[in-house]
Amino acid sequence: MASPLPPGPVGIRVRVPAKINLALKVGSPREDGFHPLATVYQAVSLCDEVYAEWANPDEYEVTVSGEGTGLVPTDDSNLAIRAAKLLARTYGPHDSLGVSLSIKKAIPVAGGLAGGSADGAGALLACAVLWDLDVGPEALAELAAELGSDVPFALVGGTAVGSGRGESLVPALARGNYHWVLAFGHQGLSTPAVYRRFDALSAPAEPLAVPDDLMNALRVGDAKLLGAALSNDLQEAALEMQPQLRQTLDFGLDYGALGAIVSGSGPTCAFLVAGEPAAVDLSVALSAEGVCRAVRRTTGPVPGARVIS
Ligand code: C5P
């Protein structure tokens, strides 16, 4: 039986971006098992959409469509459901709140682009607006950090330096608009498994800091310098787990990409290119070569989660 609709909007749609790690420096695991990071995130225009509608009190449900649909859980382990419940528990008259979420995915699942985190961030914002809760950006960011290391960045977007386990953010001084080509892998990679492989492979460099050459490239807005400065400490581990990614990266570099990197824990390969025509050319070439499952063109930086209706 449907309950009477509360005052306010019936549905809220939020668009929320994927991220690329332009640099990812990883230290030795902490006591809580997480790894300390020094990273530079950039939000890109590849976005998921989260639509939130009122449901009966204490009813929480999610449906998922688009990229990787069958791989996303729709039970209480779904990050968007966890986000809605956490928000209701912390700030709501929780026994009168409920939500029905629909997620339209464009960001691949287990792709190293923080797709799940994007959905969690999108659900936080959509529910906060739908339920008309008195919760500001800082409070939302705190909840986001409880949900996952990359969730706070999905709220703010842009280009930012992340520390702690990735949740602690400072906006980066960055100029320019960058063109990326993303090559999706045939199979996802489990983030914890990639970190475990990283631990087995290497003694991490300390102290942790984001590379100066990368920060300089962003400061002047030079895509060529940025391409040369991209780095990812998890890349070796991801390449060991999926050796064919090496071929994908090499193909893009041979084709003239300014830089090529595995994004986060992978397996998505991100290619920085000089502009739109180069992005089109590389996309066509990667598709024709058959080295990846799918190719997307995207640009960054873009803002974080935002309400679009
Ligand atoms: O924070 P999030 O839930 O996204 O992390 C997923 C997994 O990735 C963690 O359980 C952990 O195994 C690994 N991780 C890590 N160090 C980080 C971030 C993630 O070891 N800084």
Which key phrases capture this entry?
alpha+beta; Ribosomal Protein S5, domain 2; Alpha-Beta Plaits; 2 domains; eight-stranded mixed sheet; four-stranded antiparallel sheet; 10 helices; 12 strands; IspE
Written overview of the protein:
The chain has about 300 residues and is an alpha+beta fold. The protein has two domains: about 10-170, 2-Layer Sandwich (Ribosomal Protein S5, domain 2), CATH 3.30.230.10; about 180-300, GHMP kinase, C-terminal domain (Alpha-Beta Plaits, 2-Layer Sandwich). The protein contains ten helices and twelve strands. It has helices at about 80-90, 115-130, 135-145, 150-155, 190-200, 210-220, 225-230, 235-240, 245-255, 275-290; strands spanning about 10-25, 35-55, 60-65, 100-105, 160-165, 170, 180-185, 230, 260, 270-275, 295-300, 305. The strands form two sheets. Strands 1, 2, 3, 4, 5, 6, 8 and 12 form an eight-stranded mixed β-sheet that branches. α1 (about 80-90) packs parallel to α2 (about 115-130). The radius of gyration is 19 Å and the shape is globular. The two termini are about 25 Å apart. The model has no long low-confidence stretch (mean pLDDT about 95). Bound molecules: cytidine-5'-monophosphate. Cytidine-5'-monophosphate binds near residues 34, 37, 148 and 191.
- Let me know the average pLDDT: 95
| Strand proportion | 25-35%
Classify the helix fraction into a percent range: 25-40%
Task: Report, as a whole number of angstroms, the end-to-end distance.
Answer: 27 Å
Total strands: 12
Order of helix and strand elements from N to C terminus: EEEHEHHHEEEHHHEHHEEHEE
The residue ranges in which pLDDT falls below 50 over 5 or more consecutive positions are none
Indicate the CATH topology of the largest domain: Ribosomal Protein S5, domain 2
EC number: 2.7.1.148
Domain GHMP kinase N-terminal: 78-158
Enzyme class: transferase
Catalytic activity: 4-CDP-2-C-methyl-D-erythritol + ATP = 4-CDP-2-C-methyl-D-erythritol 2-phosphate + ADP + H(+)
